[in-house]
Amino acid sequence: MTEKRSWRVPPPQIVVKCAAALVLAALAALSMDDPQLVFLAGIAALGAAALALRDLLAPVRLTAGADGLTVVNGYAGKRHIPWSDVTAIRVDERQRLLMRTRLLEIETPDDLHLLSTFDLGEDVRDVEAELLRLNTRD
């Protein structure tokens, strides 16, 4: 039996995004006397709802097995990438001001897929190590 591994958005993160969308929508509804606040809270509610909906539609962001990788593509689509099409798997780490960001980069000849800890539910360095272990091409 072939080994498969998946990484997904953590459920508590989805709950927080849904709750934020509801709170912002309620703020917009309760602020009808202030058009600017209604507009800003409404836009923020729509943005949070769009992020939460993506997490609900495509919670699994990355799957790896002997036949290759499947990654989320676009808003909630999926793309299968055979190992032979993967040109690089690496972690990009950057420090800006007081923030440090780490992204898992999966490179193919025609695309670059970027995934964060928030997408994967694990440290991207651990996911990179697991992907390199699962990569069966020689």
The profile of the biggest β sheet is:
4 strands, antiparallel
Q: Indicate the low-confidence ranges by residue numbers.
A: none
> In one word, what is the shape?
elongated
Q: Nearest-angstrom radius of gyration?
A: 18 Å
Task: Provide key terms for this protein.
single chain; 138 residues; alpha+beta; 4-stranded antiparallel sheet; 3-stranded antiparallel sheet; 33% strand; elongated
Condensed summary:
This protein has 138 residues and is of the alpha+beta class. The protein is built from 4 helices and 7 strands.
Description:
It is a single chain. The model has no long low-confidence stretch (mean pLDDT 93). A four-stranded antiparallel sheet has the order 1-2-3-4, with helices on one face. The protein is elongated. By secondary structure, it is α+β, with helices and mostly antiparallel strands. It contains four helices and seven strands.
Write the layout of secondary structure elements.
Elements: E1 5-8, H1 11-30, H2 35-57, E2 60-65, E3 68-73, E4 77-81, E5 88-96, E6 99-108, E7 111-115, H3 117-120, H4 124-134
Antiparallel strand pairs: 1-2, 2-3, 3-4, 5-6, 6-7
